[in-house]
Structure formats: C-alpha cells, structure tokens
Amino acid sequence: xxxxxxxxGKRVSYANVVASIALFVSLGGVSYxxxxxxxxxxxxxxLQQGAVxxxxxxxxxxxKLATNFTAADLGKGGCNGGGRPGEIPPPCPPPGPFGGPxxxxxxxxxxxxxxxxxxxxxxxxxxxxxxxxxxxxxxVILDERAVAHGEITVAGTQRExxxxxxxxxxAAGAHTVGFQARAEYFGYGPGDVVVSPxxxxxxxxx
Length: 206
Prior knowledge:
Structural class: mainly beta
Shape: elongated
Number of helices: 2
C-alpha cells in the first residue's frame, strides 16, 4: 500500500476534489450518494444497514458513499479487560488480525483496474464512567482483509469523530469495502464503547 498523502500530493486533480466533497457530504448525514450512477438508482432501502447494493463504479472517475447509523456495541468481557474486579479471566487467545465480513460495508464493481481511495469517519463514544478509559483499534477492510489500521484512546463519557484512509490498487470486478473496530477496556463498570455512525466513501482514481 502506498502512502496516501505522498501519492495524492502529486495528483491534485478534479478527482481529488470530488473525494473531498464526497467525504464532507457523508459527514453531513447523507446516507447514500453516488456519482456516475443511473438515474433513480438510489431508493429508501439505502438508509438501511447493508442495503448498499452492487452498482458499477467506473474508472477513471466514480464515487460511492454510505453511512450506517446502527450503533455497534464493543461489549466488555474477561478477554478485553472488561471483567469484574477480582474475576479471573478465562484463557484468552491473542486478538487475531482484522478481516472477514464487516457489519458496515459498501459493495462496488470496478469496471477497470485502478486505484481506490477509501475514506472512513467513525463516531466512537465511551459510555463508561469518566475515570475509565478504553483503547479502540480499528481498520479499513477491503475484500475481507485489513488495508489500514488505527488506534485511539477514549476516556469515559468522551466522544470522537475518527478518520482513516487507505489507497489501494484494485483489479476489475466486484469488491467490498468495510470498517471494523474492537476495544480494550481499563476499568470495570456500566457503559461500553459504541461505534456510530460510520461513513464510508470510496473514490476511484486512475
């Protein structure tokens, strides 16, 4: 994977401007938008989780967006530091790499090989007590494998809007873009880390 900033710095173009606009639109709460798509291709089902269907995303320019407003609870447990005080945690395997199906995802169909700029902004809120904190790891997923990672520490009662980007080369054909997150807790009590909303934007670049 190439460095996003360095790669785009040499390619300031209309496509990059559209990427920025697409990301701002997604932040504004638009659940689904598309460029270079057939007329009337967006319906009420686009507001539902996982309802973004496969539509042609052609190169050299095309973009798709989706926002999932369904809250994902990153629950506490003995294997992620969220056990009760004095509780002996069960044998816990180390967390594996991110990958596999994503609850929040966007399906695209690239007509030709090219680069795909994936931008994600996730709302991450720690609903625990103010004297606790959690470390949240997250990743951009392309075709059920992680292509970018990030981490953030979120104190109890704190909410953050967390951005992450990835620039990848994709072959022609169907692809799935997604986002995943998990939490490690430091302190027991009511209130978990909740992820919502998650806005995905995928922009094709030559």
